[in-house]
C-alpha cells in the first residue's frame, strides 16, 4: 500500500508496508492532528459565514420607505438600544480588523454576499483536503491492522 502527496518540492510516495509500527503510529497521529485542525477551521468559517449572511439580511431589513427612522441597534447578540437612521441611502459596514467603510445599501448587500460565497468556497476546499487526509488515515489504520494480524497462509 502506498500513499502519495504533493508538496512544494513535487510528488512524494511512501510505501506504508515498509514503515515500522512506530512510524505508522506517528504518521497516524500527525494526520489526526491535521484533521482536528481542519474541523476547527471549518467550524470557524461556518461562524464567519453565518455572520456575513446575518449582516446581509440585516441590510435587507433597513426600512427605506417608511417615515419612521427609529431602529434597534445591537450592542451585543442579546442587548439592543434604540437608534435613529440618519442616512437611508448608505450604511457603514465592518470590513475587518477594526476598519469600517461607508457603502450604499446595494453595495453592502453585494459585499456581504460575496464574502459569504468566498467563505463557503474556502470551507469546501478545506473539507476536500480533510476527505483526502481521512482516506490516508484509514489506509494507515488498515496497514497497522494488517501488521498486527498478518494473513494466515493456507
UniProtKB/TrEMBL annotation:
Molecular functions (GO terms): unfolded protein binding
Pfam families assigned to the protein according to its UniProt record, in alphabetical order: Prefoldin
Keywords: Chaperone
GO biological process: protein folding; RNA polymerase I assembly; RNA polymerase II core complex assembly; RNA polymerase III assembly
GO CC terms: cytoplasm; prefoldin complex
Origin superkingdom: Eukaryota
Entries under CDD domains matching the protein: Prefoldin_5 (cd23157)
Family designation: Belongs to the prefoldin subunit alpha family.
Protein name: Prefoldin subunit 5-like protein
Species lineage: Eukaryota, Metazoa, Ecdysozoa, Arthropoda, Hexapoda
